[in-house]
Amino acid sequence: MWDCSIVQHRTVGPHAADAHSTARTGGAGQTTTGVPGLRAAARLSRRATGDHTDPRSAGWLPVSDRDGDSSRGRRSTDETAASRRRGLVVLVAWLTVTATITPFVAVPAGGESAFAGGGLGSETHAGGPAASAGATAATECTPLGTLGDGNGVEISSSGCYELTQNVTSTNDDPLIWVTADDVRLRGNGFALIAGEKSETTPTATTTPSGLSVDPLGEDRVGIYVDGATDVSVSNVVVEQYDVGVHTSLASDVRVSETTVRQTTDSAISVTDTDGVLVTDNELTSVAGGVDVLDSTDVLVADNSITESLRESVAGIRVESLSFAEKNVTITDNHLNGVGPTGIAVFETGSVVVRGNVVENVTGHTGGSTPVAGIRAGSNAENTTVVNNTVENVSGVGLDISAAATTVDGGTVDQTASHGVVIGTGAGSPAVGEVVRNLTVRAANGSGVFVRDSANVSLENVTVRDTTTAPITSRRSSIVTVSNSSLTPITRAVPPELLVYVDSSDGQLKSVTPRTEAVTDYDVTDAAVIGPPAFLDGDDAVEVPYVDDDGNLGVVDASGQTTTFVGANDLGTSPRTGKSKLAVTDWDGDGNPDVVFANGNGVLYRVDSDETGGPKSISTDKDVQFVVGAFDVTGDNERDVVYITTSSGLRAVDGETGTDTELSTDTTWGANDQIGFGEPTLRNGTFVSPRVSGGEEPQLQLFDGEGTVEQISDFDVAKTAPTAVDLDGDGRAAYAFVTEDGNLVTTRPNDSFRTVTVGETEIEVDDDVGLASPVTVRTPAVVSVRDTGNLTVENLTVGNAGTTSPSGEPPGDVANLSFTARNVSVAAAATLPLDPDGAANLTDSGLDVRNTTGGDPVFEARFAYTQADVTETGFDESTGGVGQYDGDTDTWVFLDSTQQAIDDEIGVTVPHNRRGVVAPFVGATEPDETGPTVSVAVVDELGSAATVNVTSDEPLAALEVNVDGPGPLEAREREAFEEVRLPNGEYSYRTPLSFPAGAVTVELTTATDAAGNAAGAVSNETATVTAMATVDDSGGADFTSIQTAVEQTPPGSVIAVANGTYEESVTVAQNTTLSLASNAVLSGATTAESVGIEVVGDANLTVDGGTVREFAVGVAGNGTTGNVTLRNLTVRDTASHGVNASQSDGNWIVTNVTLRATATGITAVASTGDWTIRDTVVDDVTTTAVNATAAAGTWSVNGSALLGYGSVGLNATDATQTVDATDNLWNDGNPPTVSSNGSATGDCVGNVDCASHLTSVPSDAGAAGADPVKLPDIVVDPAAGVGDYDTIQEALNNATDGDRVEVRPGTYDSSVDDEIDVFDNVTLAFDVGVTLENNDGGGPAAIILNEDSDPIAATIVGGTITGYEVGIDATGVDGNWTVRETTIEPGESGIAVDTADSTGNWTVENVVTDGGTHGIVTTGATGDWTVRETELRNHVESAVVTAESSGNWILRDTVVDSLGADGVNATDSTGNWTVESVNVTDASTDPVVNATASTGNWTVTALHTNDTETVVDATNATGDWLLRDTTVRNATAPVTAIGTNGSWTIENVTATDVLFAAVNASTSTGDWTVGNLTAENVTRGLDATNATGNWTVRDTRVTDAGTEQSTTEGVAIAADNATGAVTLDNLRIVDTQTDAIGADDSTGNWSLQNVSIEDVQNDGTAADDAAGNWTLQNVSVNGTEGKGIYADDSTGNWTLQQVSVNDTGEEGIEGDDGNWTLQNVSVNDTGEE
Asked: 251-256 and 229-234: which strand pairing?
């Protein structure tokens, strides 16, 4: 049916559909060759009826994934009409077919056809059907000629057609469009070549047959088979089209012996076509080979596909949108240089992939599609992969995620990742996979990696030379490995290798100290180095490094380099100084990752097969130095340890990604490098070699928790030391650099050895430091994690060695059922069956039978943590293993010499947790001879508990028995790790294996080192409690209290660090909240009305801290659980301090302070028992304690109920008498007792208040809360109620120390006018007190009398409104405090005026609103602290301190709606701290005006928008630190013109600035600027005419030059500057004139790691400069002027690693001074 030698003509009757259908089914009429049946009839019927839509009504199907949704071929029906062209077919009826050909032309206006003459299929006569049909010889094939002069032709009638010449298209239509059945197209080797593509979207045309032709979307096609049946295309060459050959809605199509090359999409695209043969074609340099979409009965065979690369495209791809079985066979094809996938099958079934060769598969540049040789993707069920050869893949060999896939035979060789991957890894299981008779070799990972799968069978599989376990299973079940041979690769990095940069020649080298062998890597620009490892997928050891240009690469001993990260790949290059690299397999793919920090301080990882480039592992932009990779957080995942830019030590958790603070100790040394080495294990805990800080740096061992061991007694260089295995014996030594640059090694308590080669000492560049190999364990043969029902039988194992210390992550293998039978192990080897941390496998279903070979047979790997050392009793520093002996059914634990130390220990190794303080359990009674011993039990997050024994003397013997939820566990002395505590005591710790719960701890014997008895602790019971930590600043388990509550188990203790937590907390399970003394839960900015709410039957304990500014502090309405509140402060709540109405649980309230609320405690209609003890309820507008209708037993004792507006304790209708004895009531007088329902009184209802206190109980209230003092004098506006009814009268009669309490009411100026304070008193205004100025009032509300002796008075609470001055303290002496007061001065008034005063002032939680100024201290000499205060709506400056001399602290304050300065400190002399101040709606004046001030200033976290100037320090002389500040929409954010102090600016962002972000012109002090971001500014830094030295690092200036400014836009302006300037790690983009302006400057300049782009004048302008210039690793790209301009400069210029590109004028111009150029490139310059 495919023979083109005979072309058979046919006649179509008057009823086209019926006639054609009959012909196809063998009825009347002339029958053509082809495949008969209903399929063709239905297809023609669809043509005849005009049904041209896709059968699935989903629109037409394009041939590429244009929208990037990875569903190649889908397009919705609402796209353009042109996109439906493929569904159209041609009906040719009532005509006799002739061989006339007419080119396509456009449809003219009006729709009339413009085809000239007849076309293929045009009628040759009128009337009915033709009378005859006959056969035509093959030589009668119709020549196609010029194909309409390149316009293209439509073949609309049957026949044989041939090419006789090469044709180039002249439009975007197909050159050959086949719409007729029974067509043979011969190419005779001639080519169809695409011409230049039109820039406009093709328009519709009409063919001679009358078919309206829409173009094929935006793709150009060489040959288009459209809706036709029985079509063959052979021996054609198609070039430079989007798609070479495309079939759509066709059937019985063959494409053979055709060459397609240089396509931008698929070479051959088969869409919705049935019966397709694609054979013997050559497809090369295409963006996709053969694409089969929704087509049935397809054979793709014997094709050659080379250089097929495009994102989301495969060499051969099969997909069905209907998820139906399509009967596709892909066989005997050769694919070479394709990618990212060789052969891909998706969304279809019954596909056979057989006998193909797929080699050299790579990813698309910049793409994210994972690389695979053969992929059976989602829903490709019942795919069969048989006898294929897959070689050299930069990803996975076979990627199988479709269910019921069978892999039978074949080889997978040399893959950059796993050989075979089964399962998606996304939680969607692959089920029923079978892999048999397969050989996998040289996989950089596992041979077969099973994940998230079930019912997987691996039969007769041979795996050799894998870098990780030959068989790995993760999160799977029912996995069988049988009749297989497994041999991992045996390779190791020489452990004694030391990597360094030789300072004598700048070469990157390594040395083996024992043999004195040196390797020169032929790299001269290594700026940062890391540990040597197998990094690029081959068998050579590579050293990772970052060069001076910021490129991260690896190099082996032969000098072969591979770049992993380009300098511009991440926008900011990897750090090129003062940093280090780490190596770890972060993603578990078998390829070690290189971990690095980029210039922005973000942590990244990358490995040799990383798809899509580097991946960030921490969003924190604070990483300076990568210390290394180690399990320091105790969760058995390798963590990345790093040092922040502020010298903090932190780690990113390898499992959760959580960023944890390890230490606040920052005393290590740092110059151009940081003196810190990679962690290693010593005596069960991690230690790092480090260099101490200070003037005499020493080598130390640091354990991260403050313990430091001194190693050297002489000065060493402040650069990175390292741990190294000098002799290959597993014992750690330490290498470091001396102050003289020599390389020295030592062990603790051992001698020092200077490393030499012959007699020559090695000289090390201390700017780079040292690196040594990380320990990597020998691969296990079978690695299992979270897998149930694993069977291994009939296994042959080779090269299975023992392990060395590693710290590689174990995992959870709970519910593991393991069976191993008939396993043969190679001689002198063990079988490393690696269940990733599971010991005691006898309790997990281990069945081992008939094993032979090495003895013992099985080896269990453990995480090398402190717990394991003490548990198993071997020394981890030398390497120990635990092995299972199948003959004796016991576990044998061995040390590094393989000597058994305990043959039946049989224990479970739990996780080791860190940093949790153990609750006290019990202690021995001290005796005269023995030590004092205490024992405690602690748990973290419910994972495992630890017994901790503490003694004041070392213990020689110790035994602890623990009984609890698990079995009885005895611990001998050997199981305890001894740690010397900082306080001199000794700690002995050992883990338990059961979770939280009640345990009994019995310390039965304990003796000191001399053998003296210590006594015993017997039957001490405690609850092992899960503990978690919360810190809003990071470094804890959580940053949110609510998150901690939700993610910890019931019964947890949640320790909350100091800080302000602006959130509401809901507790639904048993929980203890332990809040630090300064931990504050604030509702100031939340929309929630309750601070802490307990719900349901949860039991809650809240201990410590403060809850404030909610409607309700603690709520438990309607609950049934028990609640304990202690040491808690609840204040400023609008409704209730505590509300537990209708609750049924028991409540205990002890040492609680409730202040400034409507009701203190409300428990109306509650039924539980209540105990309130040692509690203060103060400043309450209504009732202190409301127990109305309470049914439980109540006691309120030892408490102070003060300042309540109506009732002290209301027990109306309480069913039991409330015991309210021994309390202090209101003013200290005996309490009044009132009957049920009374609206006032101290005790109301069923309450016993018989005895009372006359002073505040000493233990009452929360620790740290404001002390309570009874009022000595009470002012009440109601006559006869208080001691006085006017404030002034009360003050006139007060004496030093008195508390004058003012009851609620309005005190206007007609009664209390200008209140004078003469004595050291506290003037306390209750809530509801207002001092109001009426028309006749004086100028001030409160006057602190200047004529009196120095006094220390306090004003608390109240509202002052309408006065010219709220508080007048001008000229007074003494220390004053104003707290919780609101002051609303008159229109031109001042809230607080202390001009010329001499005392110290504290203003806390005060609001000033309106008037001219908030606080005035002009000429004052005292120190001031203003915190948690709001300064709002002042016509002029909020704070005026001009000419004052005191020191100031302004913290946690809001400044809003200003008319002038925020702070006016002009001519002041004191030191200032401004921290966490938010300024909104600022004026045109500076936020901080420190003009001509002389004090030192620290400004931190100052944030403002829309202001003229943030800081104006013109002519100031003090030192300044400005950091962590954000400024937007400002005119001149930092103005420091003429200053002469030293300035430091860190982490400041200024955007949308009219002039300079920082203006320091004419300044004389030294400047350090780090992490400055200036965007859309006129100038980034202006140092014009400055004389000090400048260091600018890690800075970015973009868009320098604004339209509104008349100043030229320059990123760094330093014309006429005289100091030395260092610019390091700068990026300058888009400046209006020069990027760096240094004309006429005289200082020396150093530019390192500087990138300059898009400059409208010169890159660096140093005309007439006199200093010496050094440029290293500098790039200048895109200037309209010169790249580097140094005309008439007289200094010496040194350029190293400098590139200048695309300049409008000269690249480099300089005609004086000495010039040295090394590795300098100049390209594309406007002038030479």
From this structure: parallel
Nearest to 268 by CA among 303, 227, 294, 320: 303
Picking from 1695, 1571, 1580, 1660, the residue whose alpha carbon sits closest to that of residue 602 is 1571
User: E strand or H helix at 331, and its extent?
Assistant: strand 325-331
Q: Taking the model in full, what pTM does it have?
A: 0.44
What CA–CA distances, in Å, run from 804 to 2, 779, 841, 874? 67, 11, 21, 13
Q: What angle do CA 676, 677, 683 make, to 5 degrees?
A: 120
Contacts of residue 15, Cβ cutoff 8 Å, sequence gap at least 6: none
Q: How many Å apart are CA 409 and CA 355, to the nearest integer?
A: 10
Q: At what angle do helices 38-48 and 16-24 cross, to 10 degrees?
A: 170
Q: Provide the pairing of β-strand 357-361 with 334-336.
A: parallel
Q: What is the mean pLDDT of residues 1229-1253?
A: 89
| Rounded average pLDDT over 666-673 | 70
Looking at residue 871, what DSSP letter applies?
A: H
- 1593 Cα distance to chain centroid: 24
Distance CA 512, CA 772 (A): 10
Closest CA to 385 of 367, 368, 399: 399
| Rounded-to-integer distance, Cα 634 and Cα 1008, Å | 30
Name the burial class of residue 116, with classes exposed (0-12), middle (13-18) and buried (19+) by CB atoms within 10 angstroms of its CB: exposed
Give the DSSP per-residue string, 1422-1479.
S-EEEES-EEEEESS-SEE-TT--S-EEEEEEEEEEESS-SEE-TT--S-EEEEEEEE
Lowest mean pLDDT across 522-531, 788-797, 985-994, 1256-1265: 985-994
For 616-661, what is the HEC assignment? EEECCCCEEEEEEEECCCCCCCCEEEEEECCCCEEEECCCCCCEEE
List the structure tokens of 352. 């056979």
Cα distances from 22 to residues 95, 131, 230, in angstroms, run 17, 18, 17
In this structure, the chain runs to a length of: 1728
Cis bond leading into 931, ω under 30°? no
Nearest residue to 1659 (alpha-carbon basis) of 1636, 1639, 1675, 1632: 1636
∠ Cα 727 730 736 (to 5°): 65
In the Cβ-directed half-sphere of 704, how many Cα atoms lie within 13 Å? 27
Joined tokens for residue 1342: 């409160």
Judge whether 1438 and 1411 are in contact, CB under 8 Å.
Answer: no
Distance CA 283, CA 241 (A): 13
Q: Which residue has the tokens 């047979």?
A: 857
Closest CA to 1429 of 1478, 1365, 1465, 1490: 1478
Alpha-carbon Rg for the chain in angstroms: 42
Q: Using alpha carbons only, give the angle 545, 551, 556 rounded to the nearest 5 degrees.
A: 40
39 SS3 class: helix
Q: Which of 338, 951, 940 is nearest to 660 (CA)?
A: 940
Model confidence at 1029, pLDDT cuts 50, 70, 90, reads confident
**Chain segment 763-773, per-residue pLDDT in tens:** 999 889 899 88
